[in-house]
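Exercise 7 asks you to align residues with tokens for two separate proteins.
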Amino acid sequence: MTRLKDIAEYVGVSISTVSRVIQNDQTRNVNQETKAKIWEAVKELGYVPNKHARNLVANKQEKNSIRTMKIGWVANPKQAEMNPYFATIYTGIRDALAKNDYSLISITKDELENEALLLKTIHELGIEGLLLIDQIDCSIIEYIQQNIPVVGLDFFYTDKNIATVDYDREAAVTMVVKHLVDQGHKDIGFIGGGMNETLEGLYAEHRFKGFQHGMEDAGLTIRPEWIIHTKWKMENSYKKMGSLIKEEPLHLPTAMVCASDLMAIAAMRAARENELRIPDDIAFFGVDNIEMSKYSSPQLSTVEIPKYEMGRIAAKTIMEMVEGKINLPIKIIMPFELVLRESSNIKRT
């Protein structure tokens, strides 16, 4: 196993300097260039700082290896608590792990992106596997994978070399557009948010791509003024939908495809407050089928995503990877289906 001495010789510094950097000791300064070299050596040489972690790395499948039965969960705390989509996934994960005597440990993105905290989290917290929803840098994921199994949920990880559990967002929204076209709609708008860290990248987002494909397949024109970019905030959906109605009262879309139920519910409120009838004047279609969509007024048509099952299968996958039953980065794509309700139930002629 790699020792502090090996890192020190590799970088050309003293063992005490290596120790100070790894322990995040602030009592004596180490220049940034040296710190960077030490962390690079830690990753390249595969240094594991404590005895417990060494046992996990060297003896994962031996009966005498130490088991903590801890799985880490990396998600934005506000997102996981306040967004019903992620909350349901979390419940599926928690229930599946608890049934098999595993515990779920919450870890923040900041803890993984801080070099000192990264080592402490991965090697000293005792987690045996990691579930990712929040977007983590690829280089950090590569380092984590050298030590413990990783499973990603959500579209950040679909094209990465890690195990994932997800659904096909493009196909789901393409199906929504096709359904609306079959209902006689030709003037169709879109409400959604971006996918990068600033939430600006709308045109790269998978659900928007699905909207584009659906419109192209139907030979319909996408009107830029009917595209509402919300950055995934309900308030933005409400305000921008209201602005669209006021600015284009005589030329509005007859249907809005919404990338989430929360965006749709906020936009429907704006439509009702501006005395538009749903779905007579304008239809709305969401994605997620959160519990709230059954109680909106009118009830929201949406795409059923098996959120609880996604969480349960992600938990099952990480447990099987920890226990050595799965060794490949498998990709699991969950099914979806349209749920037709009052907000889009009128066929146009």
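Second protein for Exercise 7:
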Amino acid sequence: MFFIVVWWILIQGKTDSWFVGLISISLALVTSLILLPPNQFKFSFSGFALFLINFFGLSLKGGIAVAWMAIRLNPDLHPNIHIITLRLPEGVGRVILINTLNLMPGSLTVDLTSSSVYIHVLDERQSIETDVRGIEEKIAHMLRLELKNS
């Protein structure tokens, strides 16, 4: 149904291109089922809301910290790479985690292994591991995943 609605919006409700639309919708549906089979994970809307609240809070905190570093005459930066062992299982949860970390001001994911993530930070005194653990918990709640013991 999602792909039908997207197609309808793209063609602005016109009926002259539904033949092409049915082929496109069918291909999109098959591709979607191959790449992300149903029941691979469950989704929690309340978990998503908590994730968004946490994300915006961390973004604001990080943005203020980076802005403060930028306007100081003599910035006291201590860049470093943190290696953090991940508790999320491999899959879509880790993809969301890595993308979320890359959107956080002052941090950038530089490598991902089967068990760890390497994160470059502008200031090693940031609470990056605490932030990663919190984000992992929110993602696990959102996708109803079990976290590994660290």
